[in-house]
Amino acid sequence: MKLLNEILGTKYPIIQGGMANIATGEFAAACSNAGALGLIGSGGMDADSLRENIRRCRALTDKPFGVNIMLMHPQADEFAKIVVEEGVKIVTTGAGNPGKYMAAWKAADITVIPVVAAAILAKHLEPLGIDAVIAEGTESGGHVGEMTTMALVPQVVDAVHVPVIAAGGIADGRGLAAALALGACGVQVGTCLLASTECPIHENYKAALLKARDSDTIVTGRISGTPVRVLKNRMSREYVRQEKAGADKMALERFTLGSLRKAVFDGDTESGSLMAGQAAGLLHEVRPVEEIFALMVNDAKNCIGGLHKEITL
Ligand code: TUI
After folding, report:
1. From the CB of 22, is ligand 1 less than 6 Å away?
2. pTM (two decimals)
3. Residue 91 Cβ contacting ligand 1 at under 6 Å
4. Closest ligand 1 atom to 68 CA
């Protein structure tokens, strides 16, 4: 099987998730320079800032990088044109169906890798010419689906012929080894990169991640229709309480408006939305991204070798 690094031209079979308001051009370039595929997250940007971030990233790395297009974004149509105009070579999509952009992106020779949360969307997009697919389980931070990574990845692998990348709950070498065992060609990680030196989030956000244990995340919006996994705090507990009590969608929206920015930029860990996946409990220190990726790959190799030597079924 071809590994993700061979498909993308990177050193490691790892993609840095395109986290909204976090994955700037500088951060993506740092991840690309460290051997993964860096992604610029368009989620918190407008058209001009997306363009600037692409140009800054290109100036900072000669390695492959890409852009994640958050399809729920009101300017997604514009972003879809900007990646073509700016000559971006790799595009991932999230939070929706990218079908209407596929023809234009394929005509521009872009490698297109949608994120799916269920096998059906992967199957639907395959004939449109996707190059690979990211199967993201509900362990992830941010906008999530229902399926777990463990159940989703092998079902997507069976549903399509294109390479499958696993995401959700993966934060170390054991996770990478497990993803390969499920039939994935590599992984996308986000949460473990929040605890990196280069990650431009507020230090309070990093401190909250280091303190988090396995069950310290909660999904807001499961009932109202936009499920988002965040760290438990006053805001997210209250959101879910009101949601269960039947609060209307608009009232809840007002409650969270701008809350990710509050967490990322102001370090407001009580009323901010600290998006994070269930792997947050695995984070114990802030390290350079280069170290995180190198250790993950080295530990995965040892994990696979150890399984081979020690386990007789
Ligand atoms: O997109 C993500 N994660 C995100 S986006 C984001 S920004 C945001 N901010 C506030 C509220 C909501 C979002 C934060 N985190 N991950 C990729 C992902 N895609 N997860 C789940 C999906 C998904 C879900 C349903 C992809 C496709 C889909 O299908 C829709 C369809 O039309 O079939």
Report:
1. no
2. 0.98
3. no
4. 1
